[in-house]
Amino acid sequence: MADRAPVTALPTHNVANQPTEYAPCDLWATDGPLREAVRREGAAWAEPALASLGTAAGSEAVMALGELANRHPPQPRTFDARGHRLDEVDFHPAYHELMALAFGRRLHAIAWAHPRPGGHVAHAALGYLLTQAEAGVLCPVAMTYAAVPVLRAQPDLRVALSQEFLGRADGWPGLAARYGLPQRPSAIDHGLSYAALATARIDVTDIYTTDARIAELKLHTLQDDAHYFPRYDAVLLYRADLPQRAPLAWQRIAGLQGRIDTARIHFLATEVIAGWPQLCAAYRATHAVASEDPARPPLPAVRPALCSYAKDAIR
Predict the structure, then answer these.
(1) Based on the domain organization, do 62 and 157 belong to the same domain?
(2) What range does the domain containing 280 cover?
(3) How many Å from the N-terminal Cα to the C-terminal Cα in the chain?
(4) CA–CA gap between residue 224 and residue 199 (Å, rounded)
(5) Are residues 110 and 159 in the same domain?
(6) Per-residue model confidence as pLDDT tens digits over 251-307
(7) Do 53 and 132 fall within a single domain?
């Protein structure tokens, strides 16, 4: 990033014979040999993606991110403030922004998502452009890029899937054909799959991406880089007169729009699981009272406890 007012006349000497600022620079448009090589090796179809990344990677903003990522190396965190063992590594936000740029431009998956001649050439050219801003980010990108051939070379990988996913044409059969996966999965009940993963009885299973146990068991979810599955979004169904009948409740519900992403769902689900024993105890206590007084149903007394707990978790 260009400095606002660099001083060239110093008391001892003048700073001269220096190159101009490198950024902004269109890394694709100014690299004739790269463009010629990409076309010669059969990856001309990827030129729009290469041109887009070349402009972004050569911008002042991305070059500044590269400098920040190198000025602030990863920091290990072995313990938290309360003495709990973590064994984690914190990366500067600039590093995460560069990773988002790489993954957003499909650098890690372009050859697999577009199985055509020149796919690996396109991947190499994208990496060449990105590393001119920052090279370290290519490590996680390259490891992700290598995941597909690794899976293809592991026919003995122990895959256990739910009966529904295993039997649906748009489930495992189509997914395996799309990615060229040779594994022969067995069937497993969802209630047993996490225990099987935790005890290393299986290696891979199908799960809901919003499930709290993903974080609890430190599981890794595989991304559908070939976009085999359509996007699934939660949709709120309500009666047309609800905003008029319950305006305050509707206002609270509307206030949640755009606030609950996958990470938030993980947190809320984890909180509910952690508080489930208390909720069950409240239900049992209320049910005991209700059994003595049939006119008093148990659910209304449990609902405030659940709502209060959920409200605290949403904050």
Answers:
(1) no
(2) 242-314
(3) 38
(4) 26
(5) no
(6) 888 888 777 777 777 777 777 766 666 656 555 555 554 444 444 444 444 444 444
(7) yes
Same domain as 182, residue 210: yes
| 3-state secondary structure string across the chain | CCCCCCCCECCCCECCCCCCCCCCCCCCCCCHHHHHHHHHCCCHHHHHHHHHHHHHHCCHHHHHHHHHHHHCCCEEEEECCCCCEEEEEECCHHHHHHHHHHHHCCCCCHHHHCCCCCHHHHHHHHHHHHCCCCCCCHHHHHHHHCHHHHHHCCCCCCEEECHHHHHCCCCHHHHHHHHCCCCCCEECCHHHHHHHHHCCCCCECCCCCCCCHHHHCCCCCCCCCCCCCCCCCCCCCCCCCHHHHCHHHHHHHHCCCCCCCHHHHHHHHHHHHHHHHHHHHHHHHHHHHHHHCCCCCCHHHHHHHHHHHHHHHHC
Write the CATH number for 170.
Answer: 3.40.190.120
Token pair for residue 156? 């003995």
- For 106, left (φ over 0), alpha (ψ -120 to 50), or beta? left
Residue with tokens 């189509």: 174
Asked if 234 contacts 260 with a C-beta cutoff of 8 angstroms, the reply is no
Rounded to an integer, what distance in angstroms lies between the CA atom of residue 214 and that of residue 209?
Answer: 8
Tell me which residue has tokens 């609270």: 252
Lookup result for tokens 């965190």: 77
- What is the rounded distance in angstroms from the CA atom of residue 47 to the CA atom of residue 138? 20
Total-model pTM: 0.62
